[in-house]
Amino acid sequence: MLEKKTTEFLEVLSSAEPVPGGGGASAAVGAFAAALGMMVANLTIGKKRYRDVEEEVQAARNRLEDIRNRLTVLVDKDAEAFAPLSRAYGLPKETEEQRQEKERIMEQALYEASVVPMEIMETVTEAMRELELLGEKGSRLALSDVGVGILFAQAALKGASLNIFINTKLMKNRERAEKLNAQAEELIRTGSSLKEKIYRGVLAGIK
Fold first, then answer.
1. Which end of the chain, N or C, is less surrounded by CB atoms within 10 Å?
2. What is the pLDDT of residues 82-93, one digit of tens each?
3. Domain positions in the chain
């Protein structure tokens, strides 16, 4: 979907189509966060002032490129994961047998629709760690872009979590649901801590 022009992606996102939705949008915002980190790295590499950290910054840039690419793919994976859930909602439930079959299919579809947002959260957290490094060692001229990147990353992280929580609420297997919730909440705590640290550092450096 991100191969479309940005305006085309926004048009589809604005429509009544079920996908892309919040999960795909979160992955897209996460990809923008990684891209901003790459920009900061590219503005640092090759500068005499940052020669001592160039190897570290180059490695961070390479990791961010991989993260950006994975998040781009996750935009589409989120749409693909939602399709079975969308179909499951429309299954008949007139007979007891149909109700049991619908419940079984719904349960699996709800789980699968939670797995991709979790992957988005995990991948965005990786981007946040790279932004932490760039906030400390990247070009001071692009420090504000680290700040924008970390804010985008936090939005992507929390946005993806909502797509987990809305699914786990409906799951009958509460043990599995609570395990997913706990995993998402831990990633939120980690991401929030990183965001606060990085954002404070950015403000201290630009104000």
1. C
2. 888 888 888 888
3. 17-202
Q: What letter represents residue 60's amino acid? A: A
**Whole-angstrom distance, CA of residue 17 vs CA of residue 15:** 5
* Token pair belonging to 155: 């939005």
CATH class of 17-202: mainly alpha
Region 168-175: what's the mean pLDDT? 96
DSSP state of 2: T
Going from the C-alpha of 80 to that of each of 35, 42, 75, 98, 109, the distances in angstroms are: 24, 33, 9, 24, 11
Q: Check: CB of residue 50 under 8 Å from CB of residue 31.
A: no
Handedness of CA 91, 97, 99, 104 (dihedral sign): negative
Sorting pLDDT into bands at 50, 70 and 90, what band is 17? Answer: confident
Return the amino acid letter for 193.
Answer: S
**Of 151, 163, 146, 185, nearest to 64 (Cα)?**
146
Q: Is the pLDDT of residue 2 over 90?
A: no
Question: Torsions phi, psi of 191, nearest 5?
Answer: -65, -40
Give the pLDDT score at 86. Answer: 81
Does the global pTM surpass 0.90?
Answer: yes
